[in-house]
C-alpha cells in the first residue's frame, strides 16, 4: 500500500517539475478558482492545454500520491482541478500562488 502523504520525486528534480508547472500555468491557464482550501481549479485555454495538463498530472501523481487531478469539460473549455488532503494544503497553496501570478502576468 502506498503512503498517501509521500512524495517520491527526488529533491534534485523538484525545481525542474516546479518549472514545468510554471510553464503550464503561463501557457495554458486563463483563470484560477479556490472553491475550498483543499481544491484549486484551473481554467485551461488552448488546444494543447488538456493533453499537456494530463501528462503533467500523470507524472506528478506517480511521484506525489497525495494529489488528485480531474479534468472536467465545460462550455468555455476544460477545468483542471487539483485536490489534496488537509495536511497538504501548504503544497496546494504554493501551486495556487504560482498559477495566480502567471494568470496576472498574462493580463
Explained architecture:
45% of the residues lie in helices and 26% in strands. It has 107 residues and is α+β, with helices and mostly antiparallel strands. It has one domain (11-106): Gyrase A, domain 2, CATH 3.30.1360.40. The chain has a four-stranded antiparallel sheet with strand order 1-2-4-3. Helix 1 (14-28) packs antiparallel against helix 2 (49-63). The model has no long low-confidence stretch (mean pLDDT 86).
Catalogue the unreliable spans.
Answer: none
- What proportion strand? 25-35%
Radius of gyration: 13 Å
User: What is the CATH-assigned architecture?
Assistant: 2-Layer Sandwich
Secondary-structure element order, N to C? HEEHEEH
Order of strands across the widest beta sheet?
1-2-4-3
Count of individual domains: 1
Report mean pLDDT, rounded to a whole number: 86
Q: What's the total number of strands? A: 4
Structural class: alpha+beta
Count of helix runs:
3
CATH hierarchy, class: Alpha Beta
Q: End-to-end span in angstroms?
A: 44 Å
Q: Indicate the percent of residues in helices.
A: 40-55%
How many strands, which pairing sense, and closed or not: the largest β-sheet? 4 strands, antiparallel
- CATH topology-level fold name: Gyrase A, domain 2
Shape: globular
Protein name: Arsenate reductase
Organism: Nocardia bovistercoris
Amino acid at each position: 500500500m502506498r503512503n498517501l502523504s509521500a512524495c517520491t520525486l527526488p529533491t534534485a528534480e523538484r525545481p525542474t517539475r516546479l518549472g514545468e508547472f510554471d510553464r503550464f500555468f503561463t501557457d495554458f491557464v486563463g483563470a484560477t478558482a479556490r472553491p475550498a482550501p483543499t481544491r484549486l481549479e484551473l481554467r485551461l485555454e488552448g488546444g494543447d492545454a488538456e493533453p499537456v495538463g494530463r501528462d503533467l498530472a500523470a507524472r506528478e501523481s506517480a511521484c506525489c500520491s497525495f494529489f488528485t487531478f480531474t479534468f472536467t469539460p465545460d462550455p468555455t473549455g476544460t477545468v483542471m482541478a487539483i485536490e489534496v488532503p488537509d495536511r497538504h494544503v501548504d503544497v496546494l497553496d504554493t501551486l495556487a500562488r504560482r498559477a495566480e501570478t502567471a494568470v496576472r502576468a498574462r493580463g
